[in-house]
Amino acid sequence: MIPGLMQDVPLLTTAILTHAETAHGRVEIVSRTVEGRIHRYDYAGLAARTRRLARALRDLGVKSGDRVASLAWNTHRHLELFYAVPGLGAVLNTVNPRLFDDQIVYVLEHAESTVLFYDRTFQPLVERLAHRFTTVKTFVLLSDADSHDPCAVGALNYETLIGAQSDAAFPWPSFDENAGAFLCYTSGTTGDPKGVLYSHRAVVIHAIAAGLASAFGLTAFDVVMPCSSLYHATAWGLPFICPINGCKLVLPAEKMDPASLQELIIGEGVTFSGGVPTIWTMYLDWLAQNGQDVGQLKRVIIGGSAVPRAMAETFKVKHGVQVLQIWGMTETCPLGVVATPTPSIAALGEDQVDDIIWTRQGRLQFGIELKIVAEDGTEAPRDGETSGALMVRGPWTIKRYFRKEEDALLDADGWFDTGDIATLDEHGFMRITDRAKDVIKTGGEWISSIDLENIAVACPGVKIAAVVGIPHPKWEERPLLVIETHEGRTVTRDEVLDYLRPRIVKWWMPDEVVFAAVPLTATGKIDKKTLRAAWSGHLI
């Protein structure tokens, strides 16, 4: 081997911040605050405040390798933590506030976080749990300087803290690009949450790849509003993708209700947004009830669970908005695939393009390899029909969980088992047919709960459709369909079954349809574990 003669510059997140300040310094960042006001600055302002924060962190004793935790919404202050903490060589532990108390305590203790930054809305939670935190020594309230309330934990005020610091040039340290940057804990697994430690290298490469035309296709003309939470897998990498591409960034704080989102979409000229399906279900329903349009919104990325076809059709036909379905997981930093068209499928005609884009999670992207493994351990053909275990590998795919060095996650060739059941087709498109734990086995045959949900949710009046397999005395398992209707709408069992009958094979027909609120997990997905427990004896 002959070594290359190029400069050895590590891929660090601070390089993104420096680039944004230099190349896109006047591009605006608009943020709601938890106090209810709108904060405006630009990438140059972000860089200046981040330098202040870095100096403050050093004064607090934060050093390389330390974990600093956040309990915060999508705001400019949380964004500043995204750059200052990893920029010092420390690790930002983004805690999901929707977890149970015991899980929040576990995450902070397992990470051994020493400083906790939190939004005012979480003050009761922090005061309730603070006595259980053994490693957190400093609390900082993310709040305006003139609105600091006395609190039981003796928290410092964020604005006062950074206001005492200089925003002059800061010597960001240089270190190994494989150093940890973000510690994100999964919430959809059994047992305690598991920590996924993103490296600087993974975050930067992921951000470059996710911005490509084959993926999000962002440019300096886009106005991006992440409705995926900053605490959940770094909001799909958008805090890094946007500054690389010079996008105006709009942060909605905790206000994800349709009216609040619409105010920003219209007022700030949002062209690109993304979030879980439940957000957009409520948004489209609100638009219909209030007779409003989507302004300049052109594209919406939807992930977390499969996109209902009816939703994608409504966005396109009524509003001219392109829906990009994505698949990923905390363990893939998180982007895996994106459903964007290619010439080979465009040649099939518009209807076929829509069918592929709306029914597949996405196509192969550079940086993530995919393969499907059949039950016999062999690689399944890429025919779009043969399903099996979805395996992934690549530079932003997990190697092992944090502080679980003894657990081997990868096979001998470096493949990670995602726990999903999927197919791959000849065009490179991947389709999730189910989670391995959610697929329904009935009389030796398999029913995809996701496919059945996507059909049922298109029934008029249905807001959310959830399908789970529950024990059956003869068939081992049979599907139960749980329906949550739109507010003010009445839907009957017979109406749902009549809608399904011509659209599915007979043996897929749910044995029962029940009407109830559908529980969601901390990341906005349907909580099938809770549903299975609640209805386990319904068919016995």
**Hey, roughly how much beta strand do the residues contain?**
15-25%
What profile does the largest beta sheet have?
Answer: 8 strands, mixed
Low-confidence stretches: none
Strand order of the largest sheet: 2-1-11-10-12-13-14-15
CATH topology of the largest domain: Rossmann fold
Radius of gyration equals: 23 Å
* pLDDT averaged residue by residue: 92
Architecture of the largest domain, according to CATH?
Answer: 3-Layer(aba) Sandwich
Structurally, the number of domains stands at 3
Shape: globular
Number of helices: 16
Structural class: alpha/beta
- How many angstroms does the end-to-end distance come to? 67 Å
- Number of E strands: 25
CATH class of the largest domain: Alpha Beta
CATH superfamily of the largest domain: ANL, N-terminal domain
How much helicity do the residues have? Answer: 25-40%
